Amino acid sequence: MYRKYLSLLISACVLTACTGETTASVTSKTVPAEKITQIEAKVKKLYPDADTKLQHQIVEVAVESLESMVFIKGGTFMMGAFKAPCSPISTDRMDWSPDAKCNTTISNFKTGSNFIHKVTLSNYSLANHETTYHGFDAFKKAHHRPVVDADMREKYDFSDDEFKNTAVPTKTWQEAKDYCLWLGELTSSPIDLPTEAQWEYAARNRGKHLYYATNNGYLQPKNGRHLVDGRYVDYTKDEWNIGNDNDMYEVKLYPPNPLGLYDMSGNTQEWVNDWYSKDYYQQSSELDPQGPSTGAKKVLRGWDLTTYRTGEDIVQKRYYPTYGFRCAVQQTTPVK
């Protein structure tokens, strides 16, 4: 009996450092220990019946969500699908000039993205990567729902770690919205989906005329090549800035854009907060536009071009790996 009591006492001291105060089980270089302790207390209050492993995962995900936020200083830019050179050597390597006259894609007319309009944004922060299975698993488990692709993962005996850094598929816009709001509840921060204007402004490095949201504004695919002085030259490994089908959905594999944001070209299309309307750009407010007040579809941004947009049903038939999302902090000061 004495040994059993002593064992319990030692275990308690590990958790409390024998000081009567709990110590944070998650550490961070940027999030203060006091903030982490607050998050842990919130998790224990909200999910008292969750086992220690799940509670730890939820805290880890919440802390990482703050760590990943890139502060973006607001400003004014001309939003919309700006013109491109009419006869580029390669559409992967285009440089904008004021006399560019051709459309980047025919979908610009179908979605209304070719209407250039002035937008002024306040400061905000945006996650540097798309939401992963690891984060979404914690959200699902916390609410007693099956994780995404549960049957497939069980069938092939995939561990959670094998999906940890992979962008999670989505089936509904609401799940993406709820996940970001959930992070906000855990961290006591105004976390939500970004607006469409915030997404484009960030992808274009604060509104510059960049066709792709890569480190240099060009697409330099893995195992790809480009034309130099009349002959094709392979990109070196150090020059790759976008993946191929073998690693398409893994986050942060290639260099970020100049703001420090990964995979805003490549990987998935990303849900944003706005309802979709092909005419909205013609009616958009200049200051911090929020999109139409109602609608039947939500906007997806990304994939390749920084100005590409589409509207999709808020509920899909299944979890599509090409539909992902990232969260934002809707406040004008940096995350602390």
Number of strands: 14
Assembly of the depicted chains: single chain
Terminal residue distance: 47 Å
CATH homologous superfamily name of the domain at 70-130 and 175-336? paralog of FGE (formylglycine-generating enzyme)
Taken as a percent bin, the fraction of beta residues is 15-25%
Q: Which H/E pattern describes the elements? A: HHHEEHEEHHEHEHEEEHEEEEE
CATH architecture type of the domain at 70-130 and 175-336: Alpha-Beta Complex
Number of helices: 9
How large, in whole angstroms, is the Cα Rg? Answer: 22 Å
Largest sheet: 4 strands, antiparallel
Provide an overview of this structure.
The protein has 336 residues and is an alpha+beta fold. It has a domain at 70-130 and 175-336: paralog of FGE (formylglycine-generating enzyme) (Alpha-Beta Complex), CATH 3.90.1580.10. It contains nine helices and 14 strands. It has a four-stranded antiparallel sheet. A four-stranded mixed sheet has the order 11-10-9-13. Strand 7 (225-228) and strand 8 form a beta hairpin. Helix 3 (52-67) crosses helix 5 (133-142). The protein is globular. Residues 1-23 have low confidence and may be disordered.
